[in-house]
Design brief:
mainly alpha; 5 helices
Chain lengths: 134, 134, 134, 134
């Protein structure tokens, strides 16, 4: 059980109308993806062939920023009909899909891109699963 | 002419296919809205009636985080068909619309909420204008 | 072994002069503390006695922002004599110390504050341990 | 008069013991520096000689993240003896000093680095001025 599951459990917010497992999984996936994408951008910067990886670096940085914002927004989610939460998760899904596709192209050559593509796919799945419950 | 206009002009990126004025206006609006929303959340926290403003504080914090991420993503935009940019701007639009509506409810009582609602509306308009050009 | 350990291992950066275990532990602690502090601020906002928790909320938000920035800076660390890394980790240490102290005061009444104080103390220790190796 | 000056003026916080002009100037400088550094990192990524600019990109990204966190922390400042505010501003000062020095080295060749070095120096000065009042 992750720390965020504990935090949601001990919050006085009424989360009874929300799929809390899907929410906690998505929050964890967003913050993990932020960390990995920030790190992948930096590893790409350190490659000799950095000039061939600038699209990957931009995609990583975009994904890191959008996942960080989405993780924070989801942490504050208290249910109801929230256009903001839905739009944020959809942006996160788009960012993770794009970053997984871009990093996959370099995954055979750069193991950090493989790890990053995997993290993006986990976050993509968590966003898709959460959107289905909103 | 804002600093970001200068930065876009001096970047070697080919931005010829992009409405650079709409892009610069939206980037400026996103970062301004981040600052104002962060400040409005803090001013709400300082009000005696903070217990009545918790929805406003959450909406402010969400808007600040989404605007900050969107401002960064737009700063890295280099044109083309970007699902990520479109989804990020749509999330920003949703956040600004929600925050403008929430802050408007407290605008007569709290001047900081009035200033914040105005900043959110400017960002909303800038997002709408930019989306029309993508 | 955490994901960030894998990322540091697969980065082409020369990290031979750095205590990589201390670095990875501190990066993980920073990102965990960001998540928990963001969540604790939100749980405090949901308490009936929110008016008594505004200092705690501010301290949580400050700690979340500083830990997030420090986690990113550390992820990009490639050794050498970096005044920036040292100053960032010192700011993170100050933020975690302040937030652990503040949350501890509410730990008996609010379990989320107890969990948050614990996360802040882990990050405080990780910062102290890392500073000793720089 | 900037928007943040208006926000500080309309906040119910007691800021009588604080040099509000120095505070507002520093908040504005932090957020401006975040924007410019994010943009400079992206412009460097677009240069043909990106392989020679990776240190500049890392320094820009670090400065952007630290300035963003410091701007947020300062926005929440309500006076008193705050180790956290002091440490955050000192980290910001270190980041701006490092980024101004790094960007200055490329200022003759890349105008975006010149603009960025200028923004970093303005933020450096604002941090120094604010620290003198704390």
């Amino acid at each position: 059980m992750s720390a965020i599951t504990d935090m949601l459990r001990t919050s006085p917010k009424d989360l009874s109308g929300i799929d809390q497992a899907a929410l906690a999984t998505c929050i964890d996936a967003c913050f993990e993806c932020t960390t990995i994408c920030t790190s992948c951008a930096d590893a790409c910067l350190a490659e000799d062939m950095v000039a061939d990886l600038t699209t990957c670096i931009r995609t990583n940085l975009d994904c890191a920023d959008i996942c960080a914002a989405t993780g924070r927004v989801l942490t504050r989610y208290s249910g109801g009909d929230s256009d903001v939460v839905r739009a944020a998760v959809e942006a996160c899904l788009a960012a993770c899909t794009a970053c997984a596709a871009e990093c996959s192209q370099h995954a055979q050559m750069h193991e950090h891109c493989k790890i990053c593509a995997d993290a993006c796919r986990r976050c993509e799945e968590a966003c898709t699963a959460l959107l289905a419950t909103l």
